């Protein structure tokens, strides 16, 4: 095990000192050779074809640098500025108008509000404007071999990706996405693509790259499977009294206490909700100090799409702006 880690550390140093892309040498990565043999046997995938695929893969320094500096790590007051712009909101309104029928169908079938779907697509890829220019195979291989904290995760996603490409009938080396290997307008990782993507327009395909209908239906399906509650608000403004609320915030973003319990700690939602409803107290970085909100189940569900509370807050804020703008008389 120590020798294996040592080889990986040396290989990482080589990448960082070299150019931005380095060919993946199978002799340098015995784990890849083992993967090819095991994958070939388990899924009846020609070993020669797998070797040909991996021979084209490049280990990319920029992928390692990107995952070590995720955009969700910046303070929320800076993070939100990327998405709550007039241009971004206008594009969201246009997308909603263009695909109102599919969004209405998704609401009826899955119970997910249209503004949440549109906002997720806005935060993820600016409604398809930025789906990613990284070869997914390069990204997954680079992170599997050189991002040690999540090596097992990305190894599994490489497996899922190869199976997905075969199911879609496309060359794995033709699929582009994010630095983390997410694909298409909704930025599904390969395992999520295989598990949650739906053929929403009945054309026999599940296309999350170019088909807005499938994209909308798939985002709605993902949220529904993860527990989305139709008609429930994701979060609420809050008034805080006393100092005991600090203990509640430490419990995290998953709703774990009833609202009536939160109220005993001085946490008062602005909107009247049943005392038995579960909620969490969540803070965000404001320019002049912490911003506090009450998070309900649907806020937590959005964090299953992306685990960052800043991400989920940006989605909720953008969704609220889109909904209010659409409801206002022209």
Structure description:
The protein is an alpha+beta fold and 330 residues long. Among the domains are: 2-69 and 132-177, Orthogonal Bundle (Helicase, Ruva Protein, domain 3); 235-295, no CATH class. 54% of the residues lie in helices and 11% in strands. The chain has helices at residues 2-17, 30-43, 47-56, 61-68, 76-79, 86-98, 100-110, 114-125, 136-146, 151-168, 190-196, 212-225, 245-249, 259-264, 297-305, 309-327, and strands spanning 21-23, 58-60, 134-135, 176-177, 235-236, 238-240, 257-258, 267-269, 278-286, 289-295. The chain has a 4-stranded antiparallel β-sheet with strand order 5-10-9-7. A two-stranded antiparallel sheet has the order 1-2. The radius of gyration is 22 Å and the shape is globular. It starts with a helix and ends with a helix. The relative contact order is 0.12.
